[in-house]
Each structure stands twice: as C-alpha cells, then as structure tokens.
Write a structure and sequence with these properties.
Blueprint: E1 4-12, E2 21-26, H1 34-44, E3 49-53, E4 62-68, E5 71-73, H2 77-89, E6 99-104, E7 107-114, E8 117-121, H3 133-143, E9 152-155, E10 162-166, H4 170-174, E11 187-193, E12 202-208, E13 213-216, H5 220-232, E14 239-244, E15 252-259, E16 262-267, E17 269-278
Parallel strand pairs: 2-3, 4-6, 10-11, 12-14
Antiparallel strand pairs: 1-2, 1-17, 3-4, 4-5, 6-7, 7-8, 8-16, 9-10, 11-12, 12-13, 14-15, 15-16
Helix pairs in contact: 2-5
Length: 279
C-alpha cells in the first residue's frame, strides 16, 4: 500500500541554489523496502538519495540510508549534511545542543552546527597507504596522464572506497577528460593546489562511474579522506577551503578544519524543493 511521505530536495556545499550538489531526502521512510529505496534513487537520478529512519544504535539522533542510482553506500558526505539539515528542518530535536549524531552504515557520525554551516567529523579511514602499481597504472590510463603528473596516489577509504590522486596544480585537475571505461572498479578523487592567494586552497574532482555517477559535483566523503591524508602528510594546512564542481558548472565550497584529533568537513545547505512523495 502506498503512503505519502514528506520529501525535500536540497543543494549542499553552496549558499546559492543550483550551484552545489543536489540531494533528495525522503522523511519518515520506515516501512519502505530495500527495493523501493533503490528504485526511488534510480528514479530521482541524483548522485544520492537518502531515507530518514528510526535509530537502532544508542546515542544516535536519527538514522539514514544512502543510495546512489547504482546501489547503497555506508557513508557519504553531502548526504550527511543534507540529511541532517532536512531532519532538523522537519522538527528533529537532537539530544545534545552542540552536535547532532547520525547513524549510518559506518556507525555514528557527529555533525556540528556553526551558524548556517553544518560540518561532520570525518570518520576513520578504513584503508590507507600508497596504491598498488596496478592501480597506479589504471589511474594513469583513466586520467590520460603521463607518469610525472601523478605526484601521489593513496588509499583514503572511509567507506565508499576512495583512492586519492594528487596532481601538480588545479589547472591540471580542471583540464582532465577521463576515460570512464578505463576507470572500471575505481572510485577516484583528484586534487591539485590553486596558486597562492587564491580563494580556495585546492580544486577537487570525483569520478565514480561504477555507481552511475561519472562525475560527482561536490563530494564530502572524498574531501574528508583527502583532508585526513593531506593534512596528515603535511601537504595541506589545518584549515582550508576546497573548490569542487567547476567542471560541471557548479561552484561547491568545502570547508575543512582540523580541531584536535578531529577533521571537520563543512558546508552550507539550501532547500530547493519541499513537498510530498507517494511511495
């Protein structure tokens, strides 16, 4: 039997609608089957669609399941910020005044409020270290780059399975025209520094063709992994802003802050569509 549920569509990592990464959120999703969630995510055809559910873990304020058109993710960044915004706007009341705690596939994720901006604490990396030679060869082929242009290639997996590629500069990142067929099996993030004095420290692009998203506009989970890697290796300052989405006509801004042992990934969220969905 179909039921009507509140539906919100948001733009994440932007202060201006249509310039960030869109997210569809189904509120009160209890009772929907896995197949229904997956089918709706394919239908919205956004990079991610989320479903708000009752918690199953102690300490969580809400639970979210995150779907791409190609399947479910245990964690993703822009769905975390957008789902938190939607849950709060829908009347959610967190146990703590300082933080909201999200339950998802990787466990509990803390989200803090800083004025209009939300930020999540980057979850621990599940896999780290230099990528294998075979992966490096595949990345070079997929990005159509000479060996010297791939300065570093590291596993930065916090759930989705990211591998991160450091290129010489932002211009090289923006000029990429990948071979997505050669990228089979990879979830690849690419980063390069902007010139000193620029608005943003880095330019980032995210390629996930296996999940039905050849290029993701603005990617919180990738930026979380990149920040933990780059800050930890002394390749980035503890506080910076990354740009993402320019290659797709977007202007995403990801705010990175290391505070003590935590790396926080923040951005603004704008509500674009609000209504009812019947599923």
């Amino acid at each position: 039997m179909n039921a009507s549920r509140r539906f919100t569509q948001l733009d994440v990592f932007t202060t201006t609608a249509l310039r960030g990464n869109p997210l569809a959120v189904v509120h009160d999703a209890h009772g929907l089957s896995d197949a229904q969630m997956a089918a709706f995510a394919r239908w919205t055809n956004l990079s991610e669609t989320t479903f708000l559910l009752p918690t199953t873990m102690k300490g969580a304020d809400y639970r979210v399941r995150i779907f791409t058109p190609g399947g479910e993710l245990p964690f993703a960044g822009h769905p975390t910020l957008g789902s938190c915004h939607a849950w709060l706007a829908g009347g959610g009341l967190p146990e703590s005044d300082d933080e909201v705690v999200q339950e998802c596939g990787v466990g509990l994720v803390r989200v803090r409020r800083d004025g209009r901006r939300l930020a999540f604490a980057a979850p621990p990396l599940r896999r780290t270290g230099p990528a294998e030679a075979a992966v490096r060869a595949q990345v070079l082929a997929a990005l159509k780059l000479p060996e010297a242009a791939l300065q570093r290639l590291e596993w930065i997996d916090n759930g989705p399975g990211w591998v991160g590629a450091l290129l010489p500069d932002a211009a090289t990142v923006l000029a990429l025209s990948p071979d997505f067929a050669a990228m089979q099996g990879l979830k690849l993030g690419v980063v390069g520094p902007h010139p000193a004095g620029s608005e943003c420290q880095f330019e980032v692009r995210a390629f996930v063709p296996g999940l039905g998203v050849p290029e993701d506009p603005v990617t919180g989970s990738l930026n979380a992994g990149l920040a933990q890697w780059l800050i930890g290796a002394g390749l980035a300052p503890e506080h910076y802003v990354a740009a993402q989405g320019a290659a797709l006509g977007r202007a995403g801004r990801v705010h990175v802050d290391r505070v003590g042992a935590d790396v926080w990934i923040g951005g603004e969220v704008v509500e674009v569509v609000s209504g009812i969905v019947t599923l």
